Amino acid sequence: MYKIVSKRVLNPTVTMMDIYAPLVAKKAEAGQFIILRVDKDGERIPLTVAGYDRTAGTVKIIFQIVGGTTMLLNAKEEGEFIEDFVGPLGCATKTEGIKKVCIVGGGVGCAIALPVAQKFHELGCEVHSIIGFRNKDLLILEEEFKACSDKLTVMTDDGSYGRQGVVTVPLKEAIEAGENYDEVITIGPLIMMKFVVATTKPYGVPTTVSMNPIMIDGTGMCGGCRLTVGGKTKFACVDGPDFDGFEVDFDEAMARSNAYAEFEQRAREKNCNLLKGAN
Amino acid sequence: MAIQPKKHEMPTQPALVRARNFEEVALGYSEEIAVAEAQRCLNCKNKPCVEGCPVNVAIPDFISKVKTGDFEGAYQIISESSSLPAVCGRVCPQETQCESKCTVGIKFEPVGIGRLERFVADWHNTHFKGEPTLPKPNGHKVAVVGSGPSGLTCAGDLAKKGYKVTVFEALHLAGGVLVYGIPEFRLPKEIVEKEVETLKKYGVDVETNVVIGKTLTVDELFEDGYEAVFIGSGAGLPRFMGIKGEGLKGVYSANEFLTRANLMKAYQSNAQTPILRAKSVAVVGGGNVAMDAARTALRLGAESVRIIYRRSMEELPARKEEVEHAEEEGVKFDILRNPVEIIGYNNPEDKRDPKNGTVVGVKVIKCELGEPDEKGRRRPVEVEGSEYVIDVDCIIMAIGTSPNPLIKNTTAGLEVNKRGGIIVEENTGKTSKEGVYAGGDAVTGAATVILAMGAGKTAAKAIDTYLSKK
Questions:
Q1: What's domain A2-89's superfamily in CATH?
Q2: Interface contacts A/B by beta carbons within 8 Å
Q3: Which of A23, A152, A226, B403 is positioned for an S-S bond with B420, CB 3.0–4.6 A?
């Protein structure tokens, strides 16, 4: 059992938790992920590491309430426990040779982008961050990004905060203005990452994408997280989750990501009614 | 007294009933049948059956106890050699091991050794209420990586010698392939749980949610005071064919399909883990895993389930009993066929149609058997122009696995072969790294439960020798 040391609601659909898991906290690096189960007989879900405190032995997770399991997780309070928490899994984000980086985050993906930005900042790189949200109410982690970015651009789809528009607009402007990024790292919805890649590719700016496919074991056993990268089958859990964005087959990844959409919908409704009953 | 020529039949659920439930297929011998079957054993002098057993269970001795109705005595004899008798009695391929050597089998059907082993283990689990006699601790600490058959066997053998053993398991539950791979109807999970509980009584600690190679490395285990490490981390990533369409929705590896069904209990109506409830399923491959996947698909409600295998029925690598069970339950065998493409649904009018990217069929090509390959199995040769499409909405790839890279990548000095399997000395399980031993699928690639147990046993013996000298 793993204790929820702290819980903070970031916006109506996104929650942050610190989980006491000293072995995971000792090893976790930006870009890696963990797998958790909320309760016995629960589903295993992967969540990317959003931070860690090696001294306190805690690992930070930030999740969007999208399905049955995240709903159950969100119903847990500070001081309560979750059943299983394993990691750190996957490979850490590569930092070698990078002096100037642009981090492009979208929605809850910004939670995962943050430790990556922080890592580059700590290493003394020049960090530009572009973070995008649907609207002002969904904005998260602005202060944290400000603290680790040499330049921060906030975008909202509806213009209710920051600049109006999608993240690829300022990205393209920056590249055209001659910002020579050694790397663009993008983390967010698949469709956004696909368009980020479409933006950087004509300029040949190396672009890393952080994939978050459906997983079960997360240790290289089940093969559920496979992607086609450069025409070859790759496994996000052991080969990733970071991949060369130019090589990823996004259309396939998008189709695979909604394989259980109907089931998710039903689970969400079921748990919603369940939790309503409990309150 | 004349020997009854045939084995006593194993009572089973009727085929068409069991094909729709997850209850165990074989129901087990009664005491009467067990004693009668034991009478068929000649207790012959040279005991060839013992040689045929990878862990050398004293077979005639335990059968003699069964003859006299001393079932607990029989259990004690088996447990001297085997840490998991209730498991072995169910999943060992006895027909190619102990039973293939049986003297009675020269003229008649061999003694039903596996069925008797299962009976004895189940009898013990139901009737025995005492506690095991604990060995005197010898002060040595050993780490075991993986709680599958090789790891549990190695841990059990060492604990019984007084070692303090900790088993590290990556998943949330102990048992490895016994809980994620082999289905409930062939090996009830309750039985695995009991075997693990028995090991815990011997003082074995099981740490779940620890991935060696990630959470901790092998070198860190030594730093933590473990004096030897056994790696039984099992087989790794599933293989795919490399044909078009393997990324479509509805294409599973057998590992994923079985893990969803078994470990995550997706077959239960209240499960939180989803699984595709397909109408028409094709399983590619001919091994035991393929049979497990096909029979699981039937039980999940598929109307039609077929095995696609590129050789003929004679070459099927699965146990004969598993093939027979699958056939009785209604699994069809499309032999001498090889998939060349998986076909997906695509609505050009509507790019957002959720059906886009789901499997609707598999194109296969007919094969003929050609010259034998290096293993002596006749090679399938594709017949040009013989392709046709089978309508299916789910495809399960059961064509093997390649070793997991996590430990290899994080353990300096651990040598692996071309395929990524850990290299060991056959008689000891010793690897190229001091104090590190390995066995099971991590070494051999996909094999059987009992071979993995044999390797765990060999390594336990070698670790004992190594640490006794230290």
A1: Translation factors (2.40.30.10)
A2: 118
A3: B403
> Is B344 a domain residue?
yes
Sign of CA dihedral A146, A151, A157, A161: positive
Residues in CB range of B212: below 8 A, 6 or more apart: B145, B168, B170, B218, B221, B231, B233, B406, B407
pLDDT for res B352: 81
Domain boundaries, chain A: 2-89, 100-257
Question: Can you give the pTM of this predicted structure?
Answer: 0.92
Cβ of A42 under 8 Å from any chain B Cβ? yes
Assigned domain for B31 exists: yes
Contact residues on chain A for B221, CB-CB shorter than 8 A: none
Tokens of A236: 């996000």
Distance CA A50, CA A43 (A): 21
Beta bridge partners of B363: B341, B389
Q: Which residues of chain B have pLDDT under 50?
A: none
B101 and B201 share a domain?
A: no
In a shared domain, residues B118 and B174: no
Walk across the sheet containing A242-244 and list its strands. Answer: A163-164, A151-156, A126-133, A100-106, A183-187, A207-210, A242-244
Among the candidates B352, B367, B401, a domain finishes at: B401
Is it true that domain A100-257 has CATH number 3.40.50.80?
Answer: yes
Q: CATH number of the domain that B66 lies in?
A: 1.10.1060.10
Nearest CA in chain A to B217: A27
**Helical pair B113-127 and B59-67, crossing angle rounded to 10 deg:** 60
Phi, psi (degrees; rounded to nearest 5) at A89:
-110, 165
Clarify whether residues B151 and B105 are in a common domain.
no
In angstroms, the separation between the Cα of residue A179 and the nearest Cα of chain B is 36
Give the three-class secondary structure for B206: strand
Residue A97: name the closest of A189, A199, A206 by CA: A206
Instruction: Identify the CATH number of the domain in which residue B261 sits.
Output: 3.50.50.60
How many folded domains does chain B comprise? 3
Residue B178 sits in which domain range? 141-236+403-469
CB contact (8 A) between residue B255 and residue A260 = no
Cβ(A113)–Cβ(A37) under 8 Å? no
Residues B436 and B287 in one domain: no
Domain boundary among B380, B401, B422: B401
Q: Do B411 and B391 share a structural domain?
A: no
User: At A141, phi and psi to the nearest 5?
Assistant: 60, 25
CA distance B164 to chain A (A): 21
Which portions of chain A are predicted below pLDDT 50? 278-279
Please check whether residue B264 touches A, CB under 8 A. Answer: yes
Domain match, B114 and B20 both: yes
Q: Do A68 and B236 touch (CB under 8 A)?
A: no
Amino acid B1: pLDDT: 59
Per the rule left: phi > 0, alpha: psi between -120 and 50, beta: everything else, B129 is alpha
Check residue B25 and give its pLDDT.
94
Q: A223 and B248: CB-CB below 8 Å?
A: no
Residue of A nearest to B245 (CA): A252
ipTM: 0.91
Give which of B180, B211, B259, B352 to mutate to test A binding, by max A Cβ within 10 Å.
Answer: B211
DSSP class of residue A138?
G
> Is B231 part of any domain?
yes
Residue B454 within any structural domain of the chain = yes
A83:B171 CB<8 A: no
Q: Which residue has the tokens 């999608």?
A: A166
Per DSSP, the residues of A228-262 read: EETTEEEEHHHH-SEEETTTB-HHHHHHHHTTTHH
